[in-house]
Amino acid sequence: MKVVVLHGSHRVGGNSDALAERVLAGLGGVADLDVVHFRPIDMKIAHCRGCGRCRTGGGCVIDDDMRTVYPAFCDADVVILAAPMFWGYMTSQLKTLFDRLEAIVSPRCFGGKQFVLLVTYRHYYGSMVEWMERISTGFGSRCRAIVCRTYDSASERDLEIEELPEMLQAAHDLGATLALGS
Ligand SMILES: Cc1cc2nc3c(=O)[nH]c(=O)nc-3n(C[C@H](O)[C@H](O)[C@H](O)COP(=O)(O)O)c2cc1C
Fold it and tell me: Rounded CA gap, 82 and 146, in Å?
């Protein structure tokens, strides 16, 4: 099973990363995995210029680290998005990566996949879930989402994911469910 993990956070080992690791653990307990991780904050990824040259069939004109993302994304059976909410949407580094996927938007690259959306947030997650569900169903792929509130409104403090063992367990279970094809 080919898996691509897109790490939207700048916090290595942070909340969304920890959820992604648990999904992988659940998947790996059942299936043989070929996993590629991309952390766009550490990559050289320019903004899409909207030039439209990719629509003429030659791929993206920008030569940068997206070169490695395109084939891995296209070939993946499972794409995991570890996506903390920043100002109401995904982080800018993850958005920049997705903008550049415009160059490979097609049923071949976006269809027949299992998308796993892991949203960590304080107050709001709706935009991410709506976006991912629309893309998945539009291309005949499937999306499973875990939304994880990492804020305790009673004490008004951010939580670390270790304080939410039930969410870590849910991520593990989701991985195992995916691997079993159900
Ligand atoms: C700059 C910044 C902006 C944020 N904006 C939002 C937001 O708009 N909505 C929300 O619910 N949480 C917001 N958060 C909270 C994070 O999504 C939350 O702390 C998340 O658990 C971080 O995940 P990570 O550890 O994987 O980076 C923001 C956090 C930061 C640092």
Answer: 10
Tokens for 56?
Answer: 């003429």
Residue 51 located in a structural domain? no
Within 8 A by CB and 6+ apart from 32, the residues are 1
Taking 90 as the threshold, does the pLDDT of residue 85 lie above it? yes
Q: Is pLDDT above 80 for 144?
A: yes
Residue 81 lies in a domain: yes
Of residues 31 and 36, the one with the higher pLDDT is: 36
Ligand 1 atom at minimum distance from 16 CA: 26
92 CA distance to ligand 1 centroid (A)?
A: 12
What's the domain count of the chain? 1
List the CATH number of the domain containing 159: 3.40.50.360
Mean pLDDT of the region 55-83: 96
Q: Which helix (H) or strand (E) holds 167?
A: helix 165-179
Return d(Cα 73, Cα 60) in angstroms, integer.
15
Query: How far apart are the CA of 143 and the centre of ligand 1, in A?
Result: 22
